[in-house]
Every structure is written in C-alpha cells, then in structure tokens.
Structure prediction request, 399 residues.
Amino acid sequence: MGVVPVFRAAIRRRLTLLVPAALLVAALVGAAGGSNDAQRFYLYVAGHQVGLGEQQVYAMVVRTTLMTRYRDAAGKIHQKSFVATRSGSLAWTVEGFDADSRPVVGVAVTGSLGLAPQIGRIGGATSGGTSSSSGGSAESAPQAPGVPAGVPSPVLDARGSTTAEVFSPLAGEAAVLSGLSQHPPAPGQTWNGRTAVPLLYGRLILNLENTVSPESEASPDTLRIDLRGKADFEGYAPWRAGERAALRGTGDASGVAYVTPGLALPLGMALDTRTHGTMRAGGQVGVYVLDTDLKLKLVSFVPGTVQRPGGLGLVPASGLLGHTDIPNGMLYSTTQPDLVASPAATDTSYVGSPLPRVTPYPSSLPAASLPPIPILVEGVPLASPPPPPQANPTPTFYF
Prediction:
C-alpha cells in the first residue's frame, strides 16, 4: 500500500518536467513556422480604376551572382562563383468582374520567369592549394509563351492585389505599393514596405523605406520614389553531388521606382542588393556573397472600359419629378378621335426599330502613351495578353 503514493509522486515529478519541455518545443515550432499569410502581389497603385478589357505587359530581368568560399580540413580554400539570369514578360487582361465586382484577369507569360533553371558553375578557383574548375552558365530553356497550364484566372481584391503565384515576378513592387495608400503621394512623403522576392538560390526578404523624390515636383506625369533598406537572404548553393549548402545572411538594398499619378500605375523598378553571411554544409563552415540586380518595366498599357454602377433605364421627365399622383379626371382623353387615322397594321411579326442602331462600347481602348523612365529592359520576349471580351460577340447557342 505504501508503494502507490511513491509511484504517484514520481508521475507528478515526470509530468512537471515534461509539460515545460512540451511548451518550449511548441514555442520553437511556432517561431520557426512564422506567419501563414500568403505573399501578396500588387498590380496597381491605390486609386486605379480597373476597366473591362484592360491590358498590361511587363518586361523584367533578374541577374544574380553568388560567390562561396570555405576552407576544408586540409587547409585548402575553395572558392566558387555562380551566375544566373532570368528574364521574360508577364501580361494580363481584365476578363470581367465577379459577383463582388472584383476584377478577374487572364494571364500570359513568356521567358524563364516561371522556371527554376539549373545552377551552373561558370568559374571557380582555389587558393592555398592548386585546383580549378569551370562549367556552363546558369541559363534555362525559354518557356513557350501562353497562358500557364492549370492556372485559373486570378481574382484581384479592392487594392489590386492577389496571392496567385503566377504574379511572383512582381514581388519586388509589393515593398512599394503595399504601403502606398495615398494617391498621389506628396513629394517628400515616406513610408515603409516589406516583401519576399523569390530568387534562383532562395528567398530575398526586403524591408524598404520609400521616399518620394523632391524632383517629382518638376514632372507632373511621373513620380520618382527612392528606395533604401535592408535585405535578408535565406537559401542554398550547390555543395557536392546531391548536396546543398545552407546560406543565411543580410545586407543592403537600394533602388528607384516610378509611378504615374494620372493612370495610377507602377511604371517600373530597379533594385540592387548585396547580402553576405554564413554557408554551412557537411560539417564545413564558409562565407558567401550574393549580388542581385532586379529590373522590371511596364512596356504596354491598354485602358479598359470602366464599369459604372447601374445601367440603362427609364428616366422620368423633369416636370413629373416630385408628383405622387394624377387626378382621376385626367386618366382619359376627352378629345374626338382623328377621322383621318388608319387602323394599326396586323402583319406585325417583325417591325424594325425606327431609331438608329446603337453601337456597343468597345471592351478596350487604344493603347495609352506611357511617360518615359530611365530603366532599360532589353532583349526580352514580350508576352501577348489574352484577348479582351468581345463587344458584340457571335451567338454560340440558341434557345
């Protein structure tokens, strides 16, 4: 009988030790997992009026240069360099609006934006020993233009943003557009923005401070936004056959972005980052340096037809507005019928309207002229946006 209390006391002591340990593990898992909020990509500046049939085409180039260096157990220093270039175009068309009046867009891509090219070693050297290596460039096979297979038409929210991964090439602009609630921003206005840019070697997390340049006062068609901040990087690099080295580091970011106040559209962005940090793999510890050059530019914009609330209907004459009833004595005419009048026709199977035919509004307008910006994105195959809805479609089914 005396064993039972001792046994219960032992259980209590074990539970006392296990519960704090379990709470600590849960806290560590929660901290490592972070937020589950999906990355949002912004297509417009706040205040932009989206129209039916609206089309946009962006061209972009991302160049990355990665250098790794470590010393092995024998004292030999190994240094390798990797270069990758991803370029292409992203185009979309506003196909319509859902039940909540949110824009539905069709997307087309071209180039290597949606692909993960193989990492190729283009140069390497070692010091403290004698060895060298070389390889091919980190280019990927171009992707055939067209709408990505299996991707439904994304729906945009009230701020013109979406979580559809097909828009991930625009992730850099989110650090500018996500915090820009006032349009147009005033010269000297400053706000902060954060975004995660997917790269070939991992993920670049940007924390930028955005300031409208005072030079924007002299240009009514373009606002220049100066970008400065921090860049954190987490990713990997090739190590040995079938192995990768983990990279963790931080650095600086700087660049410039342009928006047009009239159309409330982002015109382009140029951003340079350099991060450096630690490389770990196979018990070895080394260092890395990653340079990233990101450029994107709006090369074509076709305005759409802005959908206004309501539609055509009967409008009462202004003289009748405010009246709520009609005297009973005015319900019937007291005049004699016209003796010259003839009976109405009886063959009325089809009577054409005497009014001129109304031509429907086009779903899209001619391409707009965009103000020039000092950002060059050359040699990029441009995607063709999906065709806009037809203004006067041909019937497909008859009922």
